[in-house]
Design goal:
It is a single chain. With about 475 residues, the chain is of the alpha+beta class. Among the domains are: about 160 residues, no CATH class; about 150 residues, no CATH class. About 45% of the residues lie in helices and about 10% in strands. The strands form four sheets. It has a five-stranded antiparallel beta sheet, with helices on both faces. It starts with 13 loop residues before the first helix and ends in a 16-residue tail after the last helix. About 50% of the residues are buried. The N terminus is likely disordered.
């Protein structure tokens, strides 16, 4: 390792130093036999990190949290949150550590690195399967153009994690714009004075929404910026059929990035009521509920900002409520623009006619429940005059709609750039994770290569574009704790 690479390993301690009230200095648990399972070399290069170093003994220990670079101060962050609608005043990183800030300002954060003071009775550990799931799905989301945390590496610890059965343990190293959450603000508001809350808001503005600093009311502008980012984000989820599965306020970021890929999955057959999480028995976080739940989470964020927005509480509530009320329209605009792109509609297509086509298509999908990803990809062939694949999914019911749509001259080339062919199909993800848990990472590595380039059709990859074989059993995901 040459000296010139060492600066790339410097980790800042800005959050730890600026907010001692919102974190606990902590160290990761020792790993018996740390071994690198997967390393994101393109991301490492983007971050200025040397891949050879990360593959070496010290680098692997860094990724597992047991080597702390000089000057770094790992902390378990404190936050509160509404989980499935119920408020928990003290959550925090029960099995995670913020190692510090990378030179470009992003966080290096570990998941599964052992118990912390926020563990609430849990073991603080993670298994290979859930950590590889987050790595795979977050990198697929990045390739799909969705703002997201990124996965840098997964390290097997050599230790056993006890769940329903003994499983091999692992630590995920991920990178994010920050790990500030709505829950961070909830914790600051509930447990500290307004001075801490103001410092946190100023930190969030400087880090993620600097334009808010120039506004007449910076804290109201912060709320407006976060709301806009989250409206865009959830619209992207909906356009891809992605279901987060655990949209608690502690999983809603201030940066507008998708975070915490636990019981997440991509919808296959179109059904607005689709739920994948084993614990979401009431369907709170079903596919169709994601936009209103995001607005609900943002309302909780607004509550924390009341003392900053205006000294008159009633005026602050009025101003924040007014901004909150813009969410449905901003979400709808983002979703409609995305649907126009998915349908390849030209910029000059009449808005009224385009909106009618989109509404009619939503009803058609609801009535026929085709494979969501496959249907939009099949539309590309229909745009070129071959509706065979579309008819194979929805029959001739689509013929009148297809005629009206084709009259608007959709662009199949632009459609191919926004409608993925390859997503992390649920049965393929489970197949890959089961194999990796048993010691064979080959299927995981193959699937990762496929979903990292989701729009380009390649020979021999037909099984990765096909939906799961029908077996009557709904897909269920688990949080991994």
């Amino acid at each position: 390792m040459t000296a010139q690479h060492r600066p790339g390993l410097v980790l800042g301690s800005r959050f730890a130093g600026d907010f001692p009230e919102l974190g606990v200095p902590w160290r990761a648990a020792e790993a018996s036999v740390p071994r690198l399972l997967v390393l994101n070399e393109p991301l490492a290069a983007e971050l200025g990190l040397d891949a050879d170093y990360l593959r070496g003994d010290e680098g692997v220990r860094l990724l597992a949290g047991t080597h702390v670079p000089e000057g770094a101060t790992p902390v378990a962050q404190a936050y509160a949150g509404h989980q499935f609608g119920g408020y928990s005043p003290r959550l925090g990183d029960g099995r995670a550590l913020l190692m510090g800030e990378l030179p470009d300002g992003r966080d290096l954060h570990l998941k599964g690195s052992g118990r912390t003071p926020f563990a609430r009775g849990g073991d603080g550990l993670a298994a290979v399967g859930p950590m590889l799931r987050e790595y795979l799905v977050s990198e697929a989301m990045h390739a799909l153009g969705v703002p997201t945390t990124r996965s840098l590496a997964v390290v097997a610890t050599g230790d056993t994690v006890q769940r329903e059965r003994p499983l091999p343990g692992a630590v995920l190293a991920r990178v994010a714009g920050s790990h500030l959450r709505v829950g961070t603000f909830q914790y600051a508001r509930a447990n500290h004075d307004d001075e801490v809350l103001r410092r946190l808001a100023d930190h969030a503005i400087a880090r993620h929404h600097p334009e808010a600093a120039r506004a007449e009311n910076p804290y109201l502008a912060l709320f407006d910026s976060v709301l806009g980012a989250q409206a865009e984000l959830v619209a992207r989820w909906m356009l891809l059929g992605f279901i987060h599965g655990v949209m608690n306020t502690d999983n809603t970021t201030i940066s507008g990035e998708t975070i915490d890929y636990g019981p997440c999955a991509f919808m296959e057959g179109f059904d607005p009521a689709t739920v994948f999480s084993s614990i979401d028995t009431q369907g709170r976080y079903a596919y169709a509920n994601q936009p209103p739940i995001m607005q609900w989470n943002l309302a909780r964020f607004a509550e924390t900002l009341v003392p900053l927005v205006d000294p008159d509480r009633d005026e602050a509530v009025r101003l924040l409520t007014e901004v909150l009320g813009t969410f449905p329209d901003r979400y709808q605009r983002a979703w409609t623009a995305g649907m126009r792109a998915k349908l390849g509609l030209p910029a000059g297509a009449p808005a009224g006619e385009a909106d009618e086509l989109i509404d009619e298509l939503s009803r058609l999908l609801g009535a026929t429940r085709p494979d969501f990803t496959g249907f939009f990809r099949a539309l590309g062939a229909a745009a070129e005059g071959d509706p065979t694949a579309v008819r194979g999914l929805v029959g001739h019911l689509a013929d009148p709609w297809l005629a009206r749509w084709r009259a608007l001259d959709p662009d199949p080339g632009s459609m191919a750039r926004v409608n993925p062919l390859y997503i992390p199909r649920n049965h393929l993800v489970e197949e890959a994770l089961d194999a990796a848990t048993a010691g064979d990472t080959g299927p995981f590595e193959e699937l990762l290569v496929v979903v990292a380039d989701p729009f380009t059709e390649r020979p021999g990859l037909g099984r990765y574009a096909a939906p799961a074989p029908p077996d009557g059993a709904p897909h269920v995901t688990f949080c991994g704790t």
